[in-house]
Design brief:
Blueprint (H helix, E strand, L loop, with lengths): L4 H8 L3 H7 L8 H14 L5 H8 L4 E7 L4 H16 L3 E7 L5 H10 L4 E4 L6 H8 L5 E4 L10 E5 L1 H12 L6 E6 L3 H4 L1 H13 L3 E6 L5 H12 L6 E4 L2 H13 L9 E6 L13 E3 L2 H17 L7 E4 L2 E3 L11
Parallel strand pairs: 1-2, 1-3, 3-4, 4-5, 5-11, 6-7, 6-8, 8-9, 9-10
Antiparallel strand pairs: 10-12
Helix pairs in contact: 1-2, 1-3, 2-3, 5-13, 6-7, 8-10, 11-12
Length: 333
């Protein structure tokens, strides 16, 4: 027989309303009463009914996590960290995969159908206009891994594109090459123009040209095929790849072609995926503080849910150069 809220109340010597408050975040209840209720619930094996609580509070505590279908390991990692951060805040993750055919109306409708209290967008295939449309008038949304905006219409958690470009440029500029490559996804120029401009400015200061190579995506396969194409021409001395998967694909293409990394061609990635530290890879990269960013996303979403009148803000987190063996002497940022 299922344990009920009344059973917990009887065991704790408390009223049913006190038990309900003990399991409602933010509800007024003394520390001693909460301790008694929690001890009784643990003893009886009671678990509160989330749907019943939603009928009482008007909140499901469901938070949509929107990712790209077939997302790369970076988005997968961010989703795992975000899910844990939501759980720490007594919130529940509602994973949603975004396909090419999905417009903002479809995603918003799905969130509304589940009664979601808000959403975090981890997708990198949509811009802030998409997130604003998902948000509408009544759906708090935080968008991650997008460029910073002045006077944003949506809360944005990202990195400083200017800092990314400057660190990457300084890392690779001392190689004595007349040209350095930048391997990106197809939408990088439109979205992260500050990153490209800062990277080009550092190279220009050293008399180095920029070779921008917008690929089909930010996947391993895109990096592999992109570098194969480069090897059929006159490749640059070094390449900055805007994702670790791009860089790892490029590295394998170079190694299969008998090239030495970094002796012949240096590589720098971005993301600091765990696999970049594996033996035989040891990729130099820029570390993105995903843990801090996902915690900030949850905090910001809770703020917007509690106070819908709170104006949107952009939060830029710093990256850090992780010098390893694919840049000479580890590179310098």
């Amino acid at each position: 027989m299922a344990v009920t809220l009344g059973d917990v109340a009887a065991r704790a010597g408390a009223s049913r309303s006190a038990v309900s408050r003990a399991f409602t975040p933010g509800a007024p209840i003394s520390a001693e009463m909460r301790r008694r209720v929690e001890a009784a619930a643990e003893e009886l094996g009671y678990r509160p009914n989330v749907l019943a609580a939603a009928r009482t509070t008007g909140r499901t505590r469901l938070i949509g996590i929107v990712t790209d279908a077939g997302a790369d390991p970076f988005q997968d990692r961010a989703q795992r960290i975000l899910t844990a951060a939501l759980q720490d805040a007594s919130l529940h993750a509602l994973p949603i995969q975004l396909t090419d055919a999905d417009g903002p109306g479809a995603i918003r409708g799905l969130l509304k159908s589940y009664g979601a209290d808000g959403a975090v967008l981890l997708t990198t295939s949509r811009d802030s206009a998409f997130a604003v449309a998902v948000q509408g008038e009544d759906m708090p949304v935080v968008q991650c891994f997008q460029p910073m905006e002045q006077g944003p219409q949506i809360d944005i958690i990202g990195v400083s594109d200017r800092q990314v470009g400057q660190i990457a440029g300084r890392c690779l500029a001392g190689l004595g090459s007349p040209e350095i490559g930048l391997i990106t996804g197809p939408r990088e120029k439109a979205l992260h123009h500050d990153r490209i401009a800062a990277f080009a400015a550092v190279l220009d200061q050293h008399g180095i040209g920029l070779r921008h190579l917008p690929g089909d995506g930010e996947s391993f396969e895109a990096g592999f095929s992109g570098m194969q194409s480069e090897l059929r021409t006159n490749p640059a001395r070094a390449y900055f790849c805007v994702s670790d998967m791009l860089a790892l694909g490029a590295m394998i293409a170079l190694l299969r072609a008998g090239k030495d990394v970094p002796g012949d061609i240096a590589l720098l990635g971005m993301g600091n995926l765990e696999m970049t530290q594996w033996r035989g890879l040891n990729l130099s990269t820029l570390r993105v503080p995903v843990l801090r960013m996902m915690r900030a996303a949850v905090e910001r979403l809770e703020t917007r849910i509690a106070d819908p009148s709170e104006p949107p803000r952009s939060f830029a987190f710093p990256v850090k150069l992780m010098p390893r063996s694919t840049t000479p002497r580890g590179g310098r940022g």
